[in-house]
Amino acid sequence: MKSIKNIITAALIASLSTGCEKVLEEHPQSQIVPTYFNSPAGVLGGIAGVYNDIRGQWGTEGFTVEMQAGTDEFIQGVNGGGGPAYTYNGLNSSNFGSAWGVAFQDINTLNGVLQYGATIDLPEATRKQYLAQAKFLRAFWYFYLVQTWGDVPLHTEFITVPSQAASRQPAADVYALIIQDLTEAAADLPNQPTAPFLGKAATKPVAQLLLAKAYLTRGWLNNTASDFTQAAAICDDIIAKKADYGLDLWQDYGDAFVPANDYGKETMFVSDHVLDPKYGYYQVGGQAGGGAAQNLSPWFTNWNYPNNSGINSIKNAAGAFVNNGTSGMIRDSYYGRPYVRMRPNSDKIANGPRAGKNYFLDQAFTNRKVDSRYANSFYTVYISNTAVKNEANTANNLRGISYTTVPGVDTAVWLPDYEVPGAPQFVGTRPFKGIVVPPSLWNNGIFPALKKFMDPSRGANFNDPSTRPAVLYRFSDVYMTGAEAYFKAGNNAKAAALINVVRQRAAFRKANTTAENAAAATAMTITAAQVTLDFILDERSREFFGEWQRWHDLVRTRSLVRRVQEWNQEAAQYVKDFNMLRPIPQSQIDRVVEGPKFPQNSGY
Hints:
The chain is mainly α. The protein has helices at residues 10-16, 40-55, 61-68, 84-87, 100-116, 124-149, 171-188, 204-222, 225-240, 242-245, 359-364, 373-377, 476-488, 492-506, 514-524, 533-544, 550-556, 560-567, 569-572, 586-591; strands at residues 74-76, 267-271, 314-315, 321-322, 342-344, 378-379, 381-383, 389-390, 403-404, 411-414, 426-427, 430-431, 435-436, 449-450, 470-474. It has a 3-stranded mixed sheet, with no helix packed on it. A two-stranded antiparallel sheet has the order 1-5. Strands 2-15 form a two-stranded antiparallel sheet. The model is unreliable at 5-30 (pLDDT under 50). Residues 449-604 form the RagB/SusD domain. InterPro entries: SusD-like_N, SusD_RagB_dom, TPR-like_helical_dom_sf.
């Protein structure tokens, strides 16, 4: 919500996001009395505070791990910390749930907005838009909660008196509120961002997309055909009215991730991470390493290229990559910070029907010559950014020549998606100035890094957090959500038609001729017979890899355990059916000391 920062003060934001540190149970409330919401400024401030709290989750490290680790897509990087979120081994109520308290705090704030803001002195249309924003945001948080934990406390009134009692309400009741809120929000939100909610805050199509997702998810949960039909119809309606909404796909998939297009036609909803010191998120040039509201997502999958790009690296007798020699790269803003928290799941399966295959290349990104999404999603070439002199007689320089790498010209590291004879120092028999690291040499310290979110604007302060927004929903998700809904409704022909829009876009490359792009689009076109659940899940990997959706995708489709056991070797032996819900945070359980104990999810 790019412009709202110009309307409210930093002090207001701080007061809205401090939470319920003085309240001992799960009804978090901000330090606001009901009369605060009797003014337009109070209502606007409450909504702004909730948007601010979303910023404190999406793009931050712990929350990103919770949304993506322990799936078929990601396994641990060398600096992943061995966390149970990746493996499910030892996952319990004390190491999960960073957004639980924030979500309930925000829900209470929004209840105040809705309860007291209905009578504020504003033009009717403006008041409706404010209340619609509040309904959307309440549904947004409840949808996250019910997908993650199932039955959760359900509140629709502003809580002013602390209580140490709490209970969980059935997921069915939570979905009923979500659907009601989103239906009403969609009716009153504008077609396109309107002041003061500019940038990419909630609009009518955003509320509709979330509504379609809610119907789809509830449909999977209860096997309700009408929910699938409703979700499909909503997506059709969004697509039919895309011109009214100012939405469309970029012709080139890669353009969706160009920083200049962050607020463009394909982006539907974002969490802003603006560079404005008055908010106190970090000091410019302070090399901040974490904390609330800091967007570090560009770097979580980044391998340690300044340290692990030894120019004389070799392959040992066991066929593994051994880093050796002077590093061929130094840290810079273009390639970003080397956090090495998680990596694409490229480990080969040891045994079973998938033996010798890996999810990353052999299941998700299989058609890399035609499908542009692999090339547009991952760094595979690192151009030298420092001059390194390598003498012929230097230890482990097997090339037999002396040379100096030329910054901006020579390739320091090439990570091809196929095997290259002679790697890592040769391409066949030709000496290579940098190093060649094909899939057989990838490990938890060197692998293709996700480049969708990279932020080269850091300049001299490249260690600062990113100021790019975290994009939560893109327009292509409307097609994919609609396709899944049609698949569940038994209409594979319509599902294929929607998927083909996404796939044919992915076939486009700027370097191709018109004829080549037409042939590629034909090659990417699927038939109704090819539409299966696994195909849809693989397609969502190709389209949304790393975009905070995977864990919920697998849970929604009841595929988590099966897909993890099939593809993720580090988690396969530990994941169980009860892991389809996350453990209730222990802090929540401990705070409920009156009445019945607050129940933990089964299995934890």
